[in-house]
Amino acid sequence: MTDLLDRLRNAVPVWSAGMGGGLAGPQLAAAVSEAGGFGVLGVGGGLPRAAVLELVSATRALTSRAFGANVILPMSDGEDIAACFDARVDVLVLFWGDPQPYVADAHRRGMFVVAQCGGPEDAVAAADAGVDAVMVQGTEAGGHVKALAPLAETVPAAVRALGRRVPVIAAGGLATGADVATALGYGARAASLGTRFLASTEAAAVDAYKARVVAARAADTVFTDLFDIGWPRANHRVLRNTTYTAWEAAGRPAPGARPGEGEEIGTIPAGAERVPLPRYAVMPPMSGFEGDLEAAALYAGESVERIDAVVPAAELVTRLLDELRAAS
Ligand SMILES: Cc1cc2nc3c(=O)[nH]c(=O)nc-3n(C[C@H](O)[C@H](O)[C@H](O)COP(=O)(O)O)c2cc1C
User: Fold this and answer.
1) 91, 66 contact by CB (below 8 A)
2) Is the CATH number 2.102.10.10 carried by domain 4-203+308-327?
3) pLDDT score, position 59
4) Which residue's CA lies nearest to atom 28 of ligand 1?
5) From atom 17 of ligand 1, which residue's Cα is the shortest distance away?
6) Three-class HEC string of 183-244
7) Mutate which of 19, 174, 305 to test ligand 1's pocket (most atoms within 8 Å of Cβ)?
8) Which of 53, 177, 183, 252 lies 20 to 30 A from 162 at CA?
9) 255 to each of 77, 266, 282, how far by Cα in Å?
10) What is the pTM of this model?
11) Where are the domains of the chain?
């Protein structure tokens, strides 16, 4: 049976993660798809319809190849997903919630749905809901992390639980072609890389954030739920920074009693405006962020260990394929 990954016919079994807050914008998604991988726009959640339509048309202006758009369900008011439907984005990638309400509408429009999941139970539920593929995370992942076990456990368990119902895309801690080969060895059919593509020329993050990713080791990342303003009670992996260490030194107090709560650590662009970014906010330092970088949520996976330079996304995709061939 032909499945989603067969239909997309990507030359390289690598997806770039739809990193929200504008980090994975049209330049990144288009560059990855153009180079033979599968690029995903980071819509995030709560963007107005017109802004999403603009992101999609800007991407289409840069590539005629298929690409995806990622929406974070707990942050969405539905307008962003409606815009993805209007624009008939090839693949809607949903995170952290039930994909079922969107599957029939997507399929009716000739679109595909992928759900990013934390493990075998989520993956089976998503397959039951009718998604076309599941992305299964491990706890090594950067950004928000649904998984509670490493990739070496979650992916093989999901593959076993799913049988051949839908393909599995592995996400978490993967930075090289050898890493991708390892994930394929777990039974995944493709890999989704976030942090590796964050350290690309096209990612729309401030340069100092990319430099932090390049300099960091896996041990510099922490698994926490600290950066919760805008999305409470959700685990994520970030680089240890001044906000984290001050909270740790204060004895890890609960929200409401944390050091510097209510302080403004910088501003971020929002359309034509600038809005203040409070300490503990969920938004990352995307391009246009001004303020104290070391206080902001610096999402990054354990994959930082094997990231040593900021490079153009197309070069990365080619390199990943070469390394994958060498490792297979
Ligand atoms: C900076 C950053 C932002 C992210 N934003 C999103 C997002 O908006 N939606 C989503 O589904 N996943 C998001 N993720 C998680 C990725 O989808 C993926 O699970 C993760 O990047 C895999 O681990 P890696 O970073 O080690 O490659 C983000 C990851 C990073 C690093």
Assistant:
1) yes
2) no
3) 98
4) 143
5) 17
6) HHHCCCCEEEECHHHHCECCCCECHHHHHHHHHCCHHHEEEECCCCECCCCCCEEEECCHHH
7) 19
8) 177
9) 25, 20, 14
10) 0.98
11) 4-203+308-327, 207-303
